[in-house]
Amino acid sequence: MEEIEDLASDLGLRFLTSPTPMAAGVRLQADWETCVALNAGLTIASRVLLPLASGLVSTLEDVYAVASKVAWHELFDVSKTFAVGANVAPGSAIPNAHQVALKVKDALVDVFREACGARPDVNTDAPDIRIAVRVLGPELEISLNTSGEALTHHGYREDTTEAPLRESVAAGLLRYTGFASFARSLGSGEVHYFQRADEREGPRGNFPHDDEGPGAGAQPETKPRRIPPRIPWSPVVADPMCGSGTFLIEAALLLLNRRPCARREHFAFLELRMGAKLGVFLDRTQKRLMALERSVADVHAQAQGVFAKLEMEWEPGKPFLLGSDVDPQALASAKTNAAAAGVSKLVSFERRDATRSAAPASHGLCIVNPPYGERLGGKETLPELYKALGDQWKREYTGWMCWLLSGNAEAAKAVGLRPTRKKPVFNGNLPCSFQQYVIY
Questions:
Q1: What is the greatest pairwise CA distance in the chain?
Q2: 218 CB contacts (<8 Å, ≥6 apart)?
Q3: CA distance readout (Å), 279 to 35, 77, 267, 272, 276
Q4: pLDDT 10s digits, 339-367
């Protein structure tokens, strides 16, 4: 929602209906020019879908009937290839997603044959047109995927690690921390503070000399709570387990106000019959988005203004997005990706153990995605790793806002700090928790 609102503000977009959150997405009504802008400007979305038909279904014949109502031949030419993908929620009236997709394909082909005397070909590998079908309970919805290749691919990942964090997930989590808002305000000259859940609930936090213990919870009622100081935002971001550098590269793109798809050449909507008109919209929108970008020099200069306000010493021109990892191959991947993204002058990487890393500044954002024990790392050693990470935060990161993304709830308890905020998220298919720790 917030990113859509920011994009609308930047481009002066107008919606026919207000954006409404829904399961795994946002629904809104708008014109084609706005559809193009959403594709070119969103960084945390997977795709932009155009609903074509919907209805209640209990049989495959019902699916065929709904799909037959779409004037497919008016959307795209018979020379284009297509593919249908279906997603069926558990407990839905029709359990087999493959059969649902086949019925929609059959209906599409029959509509073309009746109207044109010919049918388009199926191409499951690289189709021109992608049809998305969803069955949720008795409800069927058929949509046109206007994006084509997923918007989650931001175009810089030339090298990767074994279990990389998806670019759009990293961008979304950074936005949740408040970093996107801070990045947009970088040149304002004002001091901004971390938003804390405890500002509404009463003072909570992690004081480095408190005896918290593993899985710390509430302190004894007889012990008065301290009043925590407000922690200011600084441009410094640290990822002590940076892997292929996704968090830091996405942070750099936010500071530069650079939207990766503003440079993307192809979207599926260009394959539609009205593709030429939409191409004009795309060219105009991408030029407007690129005109809003900051240069690397501007970011460094504006960051120095924040450092001066906070009385923090930072060498002019020195990168302030800092990544480290113990794996030299991961660091090589991170450097390659940062260069491909054009952010090497904002980001630096070095080999270091996360549990021995000192805070590089008095204030900053630390964000880390440690192993979960599913694909990387052994589960038996994870509690020790998480505990060492929490101990290091308590010793070295006073005045910082630290965030942990983990798919291992038991290991996360070993951090030994009280989370001040939790958000359930998915990293791929893995359910995870994104947890905030305010270090006072």
A1: 83
A2: none
A3: 12, 17, 9, 10, 5
A4: 999 999 999 999 999 998 889 999 999 99
Q: What is the residue type of 344?
A: S
And the tokens for 226?
């301290």
| Dihedral angle sign, alpha carbons of residues 395, 345, 307, 176 | negative
Helix (H, G, I), strand (E, B) or coil at 379: helix
Dihedral of alpha carbons 263, 264, 267, 271, sign: positive
Predicted local confidence at residue 164, as pLDDT: 75
**Residue 213 identity:** G
Average pLDDT over residues 382-388: 92
Structure tokens at 389: 């990470």
Residue 126's contacts (CB-CB under 8 Å, 6 or more residues apart) are: 81
Distance CA 242, CA 370 (A): 9
Distance CA 397, CA 401 (A): 8
Q: Residues 6 or more apart from 403 whose CB is under 8 A from it?
A: 173, 177, 365, 366, 367, 368, 434, 435, 436, 437
The dihedrals phi and psi of 431, each to the nearest 5 degrees, come to -70, 130
Instruction: Tell me what pLDDT residue 193 has.
Output: 87
The gap between the terminal CA atoms of the chain, to the nearest Å, is 31
Q: Where are the alpha helices (H) located in 239-320, listed in sequence order? A: 246-255, 275-291, 296-309
Structure tokens at 214: 């593993």
The structure tokens 């790793």 sit at 385
